[in-house]
Structure of Threonine--tRNA ligase:
Amino acid sequence: MSAMFRITLPDGSVREVAPGTTPADVAAAIGPGLAKAALAARIDGQVRDLNRPFEGDTQLALVTARDEADALELVRHDLAHVMAEAVQHLFPGTQITFGPATDDGFYYDFAPKDRPFTDEDLPAIEAEMRAIIARNEPFVREVWSRQQLIDRWTQQGETFKAEWAAELPEGEELTIYRQGEWLDMCRGPHMASTGKLDPAAFKLTRVSGAYWRGDQKNAMLSRIYGTGWLNKKQLDQHLFRLEEAAKRDHRKIGAEMDLFHLQSEAQGSVFWHPNGFVLWRQMEAYMRRRLDAADYAEVKTPQLMDAKQWEQSGHWGKYRENMFVVPDEIPNAEDEGAILSGKGDLMALKPMNCPAHVLIFKQGIKSYRDLPIRMAEFGCCHRNEPHGALHGIMRVRQFTQDDAHIFVREDQLVEEVRKFCELLDSVYKHLGFEEYAVKLALRPEKRFGDDAMWDKAEAELREAVMQSGLSDTIKANFEELPGEGAFYAPKLEFHLTDAIGRTWQVGTIQSDRVLPERLDASYVGADGERHRPVMLHRAILGTFERFIGILIEHHAGRFPLWLAPVQVVVATIVSDADDYAHQVAADLRKAGLRVETDLRNEKINYKVREHSLAKVPLLFVVGKREADEGTVAIRRLGSQGQEMMALGDATARVAIEARAPDM
């Protein structure tokens, strides 16, 4: 008789089972309710198929819909396979490539036989998917040899799959998953059958082009995207968020409010219009006041630096593909010959400010009494992002960081990080973000420095968060992210939650002992000897461009009064009030407000509607009566009513309302 396997459950109880037993058998033995609810099994921490037999003694936890992250991953993976089968059934001759799960759904790349797919094809594919789900086909895992895979794909005319299979390692366990007659190469896991999917909890969303293996030299494929959830309620909530996100899209609102534009002549760089640059300047002035109050010294450093500097800092080896490299030579001005000789030394536009700040630190001898030195810069940086990755002002090539570096002694580090956390907390609240999460990104596999240094740096950041005045909720939800630190330092990440529940990673602080060593930064300690400072890399907004994009979408363009590009429009009802409207505007400007007048020969309801679409917070409406009485009718954005006030009182009140929150 074969030896029994010991299966340890989450409550510590142990069950002995015979070889060939599956997690599904254990679930059935516990009870019919669990057998029905179980979607997969976590075997020694790894999610696996419910019907895959145990291979020895193991820790077992059954995955149900309550384990939402795991359950959604399974659902989306299953839906990708179901979609691929549906497409090949409806469009014979279509070749399959890859189809992963994503953060909110799934996609699959296809090589259609006759024509690219379009959005008009999606309803028929959805209907076929529901038919496959209704058949309740089991997902069956099989181990194949590489040659079996190559033969299968070649016989089926699946040239893309055959190419991929030929590159798989011979010694590795290679698996396919089958649902009925249809199959695909896949590591799994999957749920027990297609019938575990809710046919009302998915939707195909769009079709786009994609290159085979992400290389534009390869064949163009049709990528079909879908979103998938555990139930219809989750799907409906997601579709509502997408609809709301589309309304709040910063590119749409940016055009409506005349804030900025982008065009191909400057890929990934923003053309700020007057209204948008007012918003930028308000943000910059606010951040500068906060930095001044926190005892930062502002600096300005070059954008173009010798490649040797980037080699010394370590960025040239780790980050070069994202840098704009410039030859240090004068171009040939003649019509004949190459423009550049290729013999000039290389320079690079800075992708970050840190090495330049070290060079400022190194000017003159620094004493332990000088530390901490807080060095801030609204530094313009460039990163060579792929064209396909650019997205409005959220992902750009030229950007301005609200960057700072704090040079500290070892004994000052925790206190400085604590102060930073509290400054950041205050800034986010002033900008309308009450909810955010703090996460600690830990050492990556490829890194500079030894384990002792990383142990110390990670522990210090943990301690600083717990010592800070951040809320108990934030501390209770503090999370650690293994392997996600920078190559030179662990970092705290700050993830904002916006008005519709999306999260954005913006602020960060990194504890770096590597760069001061590489660039030979030092101070003279109390013992008269040279010591290395620790360098804290920190940002609160991250970049102005991206943060303003987030602000636009968070507030849906309805900025707090202190940030609004135009704070008040004075609109006339009749032309007889034009002179009075100019007086009202002049009084408001004297009080420091940003004001425009609307004296057009249009009905007042038209003016109200137009300025509401432009998200102007306040409308001062004046007619002959208001001119005679020295009053204004105040209409607030989003309100149907109006309030009558004397001009002096209205000006004083609005001037107070329009103050920045730090003033």
